[in-house]
Every structure is written in C-alpha cells, then in structure tokens.
Design goal:
about 5% helix, mainly beta, Immunoglobulin-like, elongated, five-stranded mixed sheet, about 120 residues
C-alpha cells in the first residue's frame, strides 16, 4: 500500500521533491533496474489532457534509495490554483520478465496562486 502525503506547490516556481525510499525491513531500498513515474491531475476522473507528468529520476547510485520528482516553472505557471491528486510508481522487470509496478506514494497537492505572473 502506498504512503499518503500532501504537498504544496507555488504557481510559477521550479519544484523538486526528493524521496528517500526504504524497504519493508527499514533498510535503504536498492533501486537498481527500477523506473519511476509520477503524475498529477485535477481529480481522479480527469481526462488525460489534464495530466501533468513530473520529470523523475533515480540517483546515480541506485543503492542509496533516492528518487527525485520535479516540475519546471513553466509547468507550474499554467496550473490553475487549487487541489490536485498525484501518485508515484516504481516499476521493474522480475526474473521471469514480467513488469512489476508498485505505487509508493499518493496524495494531494495544493497549488497556491501567484501574484507575480
């Protein structure tokens, strides 16, 4: 089950969120051969044209369990102020070649309006 977290994003700013992932035993999660995907949209039923994809990355040393999610100021500038939903998924190929997808984080993002636009 994914962890639930709420964030705030200021309209028109660059945003980076760093995640430090642990496995079920509490040790740093090894992200070797993993991919990460993160998206947000106004609500769960919004169509795909409303979806904003985060630029995602796994640390250059995947054994340190660090993931980053980012949006540029251009991306956040066009977001309407208000509440959004998001989730973050990890995926990898298991030994039989099947893709395993795990939702690791989900929640809401509050986009706060900008005066200086």
């Amino acid at each position: 089950m994914a962890t639930y977290e709420e964030f705030s994003i200021d309209q028109g700013t660059d945003v980076t969120i760093e995640l430090h992932l642990l496995n079920t035993s509490g040790a740093t999660k090894d992200l070797t051969n993993h991919n990460v995907t993160a998206k947000m949209k106004k609500n769960y039923n919004s169509d795909s044209s409303d979806t904003v994809s985060f630029t995602t990355g796994i640390s250059t040393d995947p054994t340190d369990g660090m993931v980053s999610l980012s949006l540029t100021n251009t991306q956040t500038d066009v977001l309407k102020a208000g509440r959004y939903v998001y989730d973050v998924e990890l995926s990898y190929l298991d030994s039989s070649g099947d893709t395993i997808v795990e939702r690791i984080l989900e929640g809401r993002i509050q986009v706060t309006p900008s005066v200086t636009r």
